[in-house]
């Protein structure tokens, strides 16, 4: 079969089936399970090209989980899609303990999506002049950028000269959309104005200081998407009864593992396994799974307060939306409906739920490691 045979001819079920049959014949395999989908192919017309079916990933839930957020407030059954045995059981244990202790507290403290083009300048003097022009003409740039979108708002611009390269980091408020496409289109328009007025040449609309889908210190420090913090305090009696460990043991495990171990490794994320929970939630709710990378920048900390355990997570880059992207796909929309996060006005609620679930997963795993039970649990549930 030639590339022309795979050319995207539309998203109707007939087109999808024709394309899948061609792939089966080319590879001499059966794709009957991939072809058995529960929704009309037209529903995915803006999510995939050359569609031949769908991959089904096992879906479970944790909860009811009590969350005391500014946007997510109440008890939730939270969907998680994964192929890793023991993950949902572990997270659910953390949810149960936190709920019994009064619930998780979560707050969105920053909310900006970034796009950072790189310009070629004549020399460092020119780069500085361009930076100065950008600072002096923020309102003009803002008007041009925002003319491309009805929801996005340009919040700030920061310039970083390096030789003849000038990296310019635009930050936007993007409403309930994750906002990458919105930020890209707006930044392209703004960059054309900068080119016309300064003589700098945009080489790429993404110069990697955004930084998208790569671990980066700038995102860990300044944030990208939604920066969310979450915490909980677990009383001594609940910790010993449910987790079979002590606050002192968990705090020491977290310090030597998440703080010292991460520093020794040069890790940009200081956590037990935050990406596990982020990936399972992103896949279930139609987020961009590649942005699990930024979710892994989580910092987990524990303290023993008397004999009680205080645990918190700081997640500087939760990049989620409650509209757009994969959120409109039928299964993913149902998963969002399960936690009341589908549609407008729900993206910050979703971000608080993500951070709270990460908190539960971190608690459970750190307790299991402190008690020496991690291998036993994976042997029982994961094999």
TrEMBL record:
Pathway: Metabolic intermediate biosynthesis; (R)-mevalonate biosynthesis; (R)-mevalonate from acetyl-CoA: step 3/3
Keyword Oxidoreductase attributed: yes
Reactions mediated catalytically: (R)-mevalonate + 2 NADP(+) + CoA = (3S)-3-hydroxy-3-methylglutaryl-CoA + 2 NADPH + 2 H(+)
The keyword Transmembrane is annotated on this UniProt entry: no
GO molecular function: hydroxymethylglutaryl-CoA reductase (NADPH) activity
Domain of life, source organism: Archaea
Entries under InterPro entries matching the protein: HMG_CoA_Rdtase, HMG_CoA_Rdtase_cat_sf, HMG_CoA_Rdtase_CS, HMG_CoA_Rdtase_eu_arc, HMG_CoA_Rdtase_NAD(P)-bd_sf, HMG_CoA_Rdtase_sub-bd_dom_sf
Key words of the record: NADP, Oxidoreductase
CDD domains xref list: HMG-CoA_reductase_classI
A single BP term in Gene Ontology: coenzyme A metabolic process
Assigned EC number: 1.1.1.34
NCBIfam families for the chain: HMG_CoA_R_NADP
Family membership: Belongs to the HMG-CoA reductase family.
Protein name, UniProt field: 3-hydroxy-3-methylglutaryl coenzyme A reductase
Organism expressing this protein natively: Methanomassiliicoccus intestinalis (strain Issoire-Mx1)
């Amino acid at each position: 079969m030639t590339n022309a045979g795979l050319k995207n001819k539309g998203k109707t079920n007939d087109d999808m089936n024709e394309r899948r049959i061609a792939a089966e014949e080319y590879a001499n395999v059966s794709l009957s399970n991939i072809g058995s989908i529960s929704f009309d192919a037209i529903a995915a017309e803006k999510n995939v090209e050359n569609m031949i079916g769908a991959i089904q990933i096992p879906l479970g839930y944790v909860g009811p989980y009590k969350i005391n957020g500014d946007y997510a407030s109440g008890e939730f059954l939270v969907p998680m899609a994964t192929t890793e045995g023991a993950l949902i059981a572990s997270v659910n244990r953390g949810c149960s303990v936190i709920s019994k202790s009064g619930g998780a507290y979560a707050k969105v403290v920053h909310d900006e999506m970034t796009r950072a083009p790189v310009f070629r300048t004549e020399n460092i003097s020119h780069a500085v002049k361009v930076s100065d022009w950008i600072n002096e003409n923020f309102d003009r740039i803002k008007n041009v950028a925002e003319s491309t979108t009805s929801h996005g708002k340009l919040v700030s611009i920061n310039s970083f000269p390096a030789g003849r390269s000038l990296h310019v980091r635009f930050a936007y408020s993007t409403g309930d959309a994750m906002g990458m496409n919105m930020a890209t289109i707006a930044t392209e328009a703004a960059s054309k104005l900068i080119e016309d007025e300064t003589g700098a040449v945009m080489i790429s609309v993404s110069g990697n200081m955004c930084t998208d889908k790569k671990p980066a210190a700038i995102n860990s420090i300044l944030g990208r998407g939604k920066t969310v913090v979450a915490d909980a305090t677990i009383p001594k009696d609940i910790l010993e009864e449910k987790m079979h460990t002590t606050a002192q043991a968990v705090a020491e495990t977290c310090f030597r593992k998440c703080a010292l171990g991460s520093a020794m490794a040069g890790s940009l994320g200081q956590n037990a396994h935050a990406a596990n929970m982020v990936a399972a939630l992103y896949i279930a709710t139609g987020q961009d799974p590649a942005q699990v990378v930024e979710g892994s920048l989580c910092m987990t900390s524990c303290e023993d307060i008397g004999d009680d355990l205080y645990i918190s997570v700081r997640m500087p880059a939760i990049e989620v939306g409650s509209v757009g992207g994969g959120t409109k796909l039928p299964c993913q929309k149902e998963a969002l409906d399960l936690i009341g996060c589908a549609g407008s006005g729900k993206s910050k609620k979703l971000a608080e739920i993500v951070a709270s679930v990460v908190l539960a997963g971190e608690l459970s795993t750190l307790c299991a490691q402190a008690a020496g039970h991690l291998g036993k649990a994976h042997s029982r549930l994961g094999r």
